[in-house]
Amino acid sequence: MADEFEKKIDTFMLNDLINKSEPIILEFGVRKGISTKNFIKVCEQKNGHLYSIDVDDCSEISNSSKWTFIKSRDDDFENLKNKLPEQFDLIFLDSFHNAEHVCKIFYHYYSKLKKGGSFYFDDISWLPYLKNAERNNFNCEMNNLETFEKLVEIFSTNRKNMDLYFSFVGSGMAKIIKLNDQILIKQKKIKSRKFSLKNFARKFYNYFL
Q1: N or C: which end of the chain has fewer CB within 10 A?
Q2: Closest Cα partner for 12 from 144, 129, 149, 166?
Q3: Beta-strand relationship, 67-71 and 49-54
């Protein structure tokens, strides 16, 4: 699982920082510090700075001058308001994997993302957690599926403002690229014609074709 996480970081995330000079990065969730150490390495090479937020004390991960650790909930907006810069090149959300929480954090911090910046979400694939799959975990299956669906709803409602990409390596990862500084619209349920009479008729016709 650690190897899969490293692969996602290397192939899906860090490429966005190759052409960034002095990148300012915000990270929610530190845990073992895998992503943290990768971000710090980039910041040391490119004279950037990483801000990491976690409810646990993870301050011993590194003593780099390019890193600021803040012990806090990621949704304690009042506490964090004066401890963070105004804008970021990259934001990575890997804290509480609940779809409603993901939406709350995204909508609050999206305005702080620079135009052309990237917002990443870990754990959006439910496939490894399906019944009889390699990780078989009901809660992870549901949380990841609901997060995936919420991100698609956000994109569907704001298609002119962002691009959305997915990686299904391991537990998956999503990336939203900010295209402009327009204020986002709250996500809406997608009205699909999947269960319409017209679609049932289409399936019936194809079955007997």
Answers
A1: C
A2: 166
A3: parallel
Cβ atoms < 10 Å from Cβ of 170: 20
Distance of CA 155 to the CA centre of its chain: 13
Q: Of the candidates 73, 76, 17, 72, which has an alpha carbon nearest to the alpha carbon of residue 47? A: 17
Q: For residue range 153-162, list pLDDT tens digits in order.
A: 999 999 999 9
Q: What would the pLDDT profile of 15-28 be if each residue is shown by its tens digit? A: 888 888 999 999 99
Q: Is the pTM of this model over 0.85?
A: yes
**163: β partners:** 177
Provide the residue type at 191 as one letter: K
Q: Do 26 and 92 form a contact (C-beta atoms < 8 A)?
A: yes
21 by Cβ neighbours in 10 Å (0-12 / 13-18 / 19+) ranks as exposed
Residue written as tokens 């964090």?
80
Give the position of tokens 């692969």.
7
pLDDT at 14: 87
Which residues pair with residue 72 across a beta bridge?
A: none
Q: How far apart are CA 187 and CA 103, in angstroms?
A: 9
